[in-house]
Amino acid sequence: MPSELSTVKIAIVGSGNVGTTFAYALLLSGLAAEIVLIDSNRAKAEGEVMDLNHAVPLTHPTKIRAGDYEDCSGAVVTIITAGAAQKPGETRLDLNKRNTDVFKSIIPAVARYNPGGILLVATNPVDVMSYAAWKISGLPSHQVIGSGTILDTARFRHLLSVHFGVDARSVHAFIIGEHGDSEVPLWSLANIAGMRLQSFSETHMVPYDESIRNDIYLKTRSAAYEIIRRKGATYYAVAVGLLRIVESVLRDQKTVYSVSGLVENYYSVRDTYLSLPSVIGRNGIEFVLQLQLDDRESAALGVSGEILRTATGQLGLD
Ligand code: NAD
Description:
- This protein is α/β, with parallel strands linked by helices.
- It has helices spanning 17-29, 42-53, 96-113, 126-137, 150-164, 197-204, 210-231, 236-250, 295-313; strands at residues 9-13, 34-38, 63-66, 77-80, 118-121, 144-146, 171-172, 175-176, 184-185, 191-192, 195-196, 255-263, 272-281, 284-288.
- Helix 5 (150-164) crosses helix 7 (210-231).
């Protein structure tokens, strides 16, 4: 482990599917010296810790333990994955009230013991819950990040990569806005190694039209519903998304990810949390990219912003 990583502590609140899959990915990455798992179901956290600890001799020297909120003290990042998940047929916004109550019991303690750390929220509806975490914690907004559409962007890139027959890592495309039903695909900026999709399609004879765009967008947007219908929950891809964000913080990488942050004034969006391509570094969200959106995209982003502004307004936290 490089010396600057030898003291890195990461706390995870919520030892369910997402929290423990992230803990596992973090252990395999070797990025953390210490991982603390916190859950209202202490036995669950302890059982997960035992299982993870048995992987330590085969991976990286890492202290992993079950803890309480005071153990968030000194954590570079605290990941919040506690709360209810979507049931089949439920939208993410349906979880609003239930998870705000959960956050009122968690966030004040995390912020009290760790006022200097980054809060990274995955609990759904993630934009609303990130806004709630920001309001409840009183922390500066750059320190309170939601995983947002990092997952939807990965799903989008995967589907584009399958369609165009190139490695997903060479597909540069973003989903912005709500992590949910109003999310916005940025077709006008999508490219493969700098080549616009339209020109890639013409040069390399790959079909690309409105119905293909629609199909890819709908598959991206409905992926969580499809997975939940089949296996009850989603966790691998979001866990890796969380890991990438944490890595960019720890190494001050300034990597651009579509994460949920406070948007005060961006096109027609005002005063809510939603995802935009953001530079992630040691301070959390360092800055947001000022994108040139086309009219359709900026209108769709405005709709997403309205939906989220209404949802955050209903929290009674303003
Ligand atoms: P889960 O039910 O497996 O785990 C949730 C954990 O939270 C449980 O262990 C539970 O005991 C704990 N918990 C509940 N209330 C608590 C409290 N007050 N204090 C401490 N711990 C508490 O759920 P999951 O599948 O891990 O999903 C967790 C959340 O992540 C859900 O809201 C889900 O919708 C969301 N999620 C987000 C994304 C994303 O892209 N942002 C992707 C998948 C899931």
